[in-house]
Amino acid sequence: MDIRRRPPKPSLTTQQPPPPPSPAAGNPDSSSPKASDALPLPLYLTNGIFFTLFFSVAYFLLHRWRDKIRNSTPLHVLTLSELAGIISLIASFIYLLGFFGIDFVQSFISKPESDEEHQRFILHEDRNIHCSLPPVVGAKAKPPMDLPEDDEELVNCVVSGRIPSYSLESKLGDCFRAAKIRRQAVQRLTGRSVEGLPLEGFNYDSILGQCCEMPVGYVQIPVGIAGPLLLNGCEYSVPMATTEGCLVASTNRGCKAIYSSGGATCVLLRDAMTRAPVVRFSSAKRATELKFFLEDPLNFDTLSLVFNKSSRFARLQGIQCAVAGKNLYIRFSCSTGDAMGMNMVSKGVQNVLDFLQNDFPDMDVIGISGNYCSDKKPAAINWIEGRGKSVVCEAVITGDVVSKVLKTSVPALVELNMLKNLAGSAVAGALGGSMHMLQILSLQFL
Question: What pLDDT is attached to residue 34?
Fold first, then answer.
């Protein structure tokens, strides 16, 4: 294939004034004849005449042929008017065919342009183009801020505030390098060394936008295994991440005592996550009206449909309300599948609040969480109503196991339970009567 390349343009300092364009070169299209140039009338008028002629003659011939069929007259017997109509129909059809295929007709009428005409057309277009160089195709756009290549300069920019610390990952595109630079900036700002905090050996890309922002390192926690725990006829190994001595050993001793006594049984009573927004009205009466509306069983199905749109796993189970003056605390309980599901619960609650604004436009949403949930803190409502998984477990430990495994006696263990878990908790005003159950549970999630 013959590819013709446009010659390079001369520089601005040596550029000569262009020669006066010739009549042919002034308009490249002027030398190309058009099909409409051969028409004696304007194009729009000629088109209107032939369109009218085509449809009027077609209607006339169809009307005549219908009369011949009714009168049993042969169709091939033509009058002078019918013959003229057929000729006009054919002529108008040929014109319309050529009109809609004007490009096809143009290719036969116009002669092929020579190389000189192509060259004149290119030169004419070049005069209309600005002298600046065209943009490079595929070139990457510059970042909004030129980042220095040296890490030391980046640290100085973070310390001075020219580069926000939280934007290092997005600007550098390297999470490990961002953590390293942020780590050095923290040392300069605080005047404290963080050399004891590990940096290498962790995939910082895995936590970007997920579970930790602005990392400067990570913490290594040893993980121990307690068990096996015999629960409902199945054996489970319990992983525990902790740096506290004797905790895994103590838990393992309890698992051994349960296993030696035939195991434990457990029943799931309820599985529901909660979220309780707080809303405010102009009067306590309006707050109670919304309370009655939400707790009415007739409205539960409608509210469930609105709530369940947030996720295919979230399913609303119940709504509990508490009035405090003009404020209303609405506690939503729902199942969340295998996930903790706080995000899907919050989205479902927001859907319901938006829906309630239609019937209660004076409702002012103060917060998506009003601590009536209650999340990440001990509360009596969670102890009474439950939050998350509510279970009941039972294990019967024999006296021989108490003496051999736990190294104590049954009367001494019962007395310790009364004085510590019941009386001691009451004196301290503690919620719950356990020893350190929450600590053992939390270590399994680290």
Answer: 52
User: Of all residues in the chain, what percent are helix, strand and coil, respectively (each to 5)?
Assistant: 50, 15, 40
Q: Which amino acid is at 280?
A: R
Q: How many CB atoms lie within 10 A of CB 304?
A: 18
* Residue 399 three-state SS: helix
Dig out the tokens for 358 from the structure: 């239609």
Token pair 């953590």 is found at 179
- pLDDT digits over 45-67, tens only? 777 787 788 888 888 888 888 88
* pLDDT at residue 439, rounded to an integer: 81
Query: CA torsion sign, 295 to 296 to 302 to 308?
Result: positive
Domains of the chain: 23-127 (no CATH), 151-207 (no CATH), 223-264+395-443 (3.90.770.10), 271-390 (3.30.70.420)
DSSP label of 5 = P
Contact 74, 68 (CB under 8 A): yes
Neighbours of 51 (CB within 10 A): 14
Q: Write out pLDDT tens, residues 382-412.
A: 888 989 899 999 999 999 999 999 999 999 9
d(CA 114, CA 118): 7
- How many Å apart are CA 293 and CA 83, to the nearest integer? 85
Specify the higher pLDDT residue, 360 or 12. Answer: 360
**pLDDT tens digits for 270-300?**
999 999 999 999 999 999 999 999 999 999 9
For the beta carbon of residue 247, count every other beta carbon within 10 angstroms: 17
Backbone angles phi, psi at 435, to 5 degrees: -90, -70
Measured in whole angstroms, the distance separating CA 109 from the mean position of its chain's CA atoms is 58
